[in-house]
């Protein structure tokens, strides 16, 4: 099994797209009247492709013993993913519920019902089709839920027959998934549970993750080639131009467009080149630096949902620029708090896990 250092280019891109999403949601501080980077939802497609790549890489490191091992291998993969994501999600649910509920009225039975309905966030269930207006809904949990649910379907298909998945299933899921989404919405940046049996976030996750799996195959192919200096520079130019094109779309263009589906393929090319490490632009990060940057990006993404609404409700007359600064400061501070709390709880849990286990279970 190969060990992988953190890819510095990917981590920088992850942070960049996280900031794009945060600035997109800054619209709420001005009650939707203003926002920076109105195409920031494209960052979510980057996260899906990235997650699909990492899923394919993880699957490639797991030997398939027999067809009977597909289920247990899938369960171990999903549990490993949940173990990493859950502490941050739990912290975010608690903070979001507190910020949304407590400062704006006394604690009543309605808040208790609100808290109970919020348990769906803890089991990654919102993208299973539960109506978001009937439950306490953490805004970004739809992405986590859609990713986990789709991985439950895609990982065993990939693990059981890798070549069949990469040559047949994944291309079909990408093309028909995008085609269905384009036919229905004429754009990509939509999340709803009202028009489908399942949330259409599941559809976005399915073609994004599948495209990420194909990006892994393409990156592995690129790694098998030895490029000249000119070839490395050419890949660097393609990486920079692709990133610039996507960033221009996010920053300067407003409305959703059917042409945005082409940008998803461009995102896949960016991920492929960055992970291949064959361009002149590549560097690795150490374990500490890489883990910090990756965890901070995730913490910033998952915990920031409530702060734009808080600023808008507490200071409705503030100008957008002032409210934006306060929103970003609160989101960054909350992300650091999330990382610190999860780290401390993780350390404490590792110390008491075995004593608790021996207290409950007879070996």
Polypeptide structure, described:
With 363 residues, this protein is mostly helical. Helix content is 71%, strand content 1%. It has 13 helices and two strands; from the N terminus they run E-H-H-H-H-H-H-H-H-H-H-E-H-H-H. It has helices at residues 8-24, 42-60, 70-101, 109-117, 119-122, 141-160, 162-185, 200-223, 229-252, 260-276, 287-303, 305-314, 320-360; strands spanning 6-7, 284-285. The chain has a two-stranded antiparallel sheet with strand order 1-2. The radius of gyration is 21 Å and the shape is globular. The model has no long low-confidence stretch (mean pLDDT 86).
Keywords:
1% strand, globular, single chain, mainly alpha, 363 residues
Please outline the helices and strands.
Elements lengths: L5 E2 H17 L17 H19 L9 H32 L7 H9 L1 H4 L18 H20 L1 H24 L14 H24 L5 H24 L7 H17 L7 E2 L1 H17 L1 H10 L5 H41 L3
Antiparallel strand pairs: 1-2
Helix pairs in contact: 1-2, 1-11, 2-6, 2-8, 2-10, 3-6, 3-11, 3-12, 3-13, 6-7, 6-8, 7-8, 8-10, 9-10, 11-13, 12-13
> What gap, in angstroms, lies between the N and C termini?
31 Å
Tell me, rounded to a whole number, the average pLDDT: 86
Q: Order of helices and strands, N to C?
A: EHHHHHHHHHHEHHH
Give Rg in angstroms.
Answer: 21 Å
Low-confidence stretches: none
Shape: globular
Major beta-sheet overview: 2 strands, antiparallel
Q: How many distinct helices?
A: 13
User: Which strands sit side by side, in order, in the main sheet?
Assistant: 1-2
Indicate the multimeric state: single chain
- The count of strands amounts to 2
Strand content: under 5%
Label the structural class.
Answer: mainly alpha
Helix fraction by DSSP (H/I, runs of at least 4)? over 70%
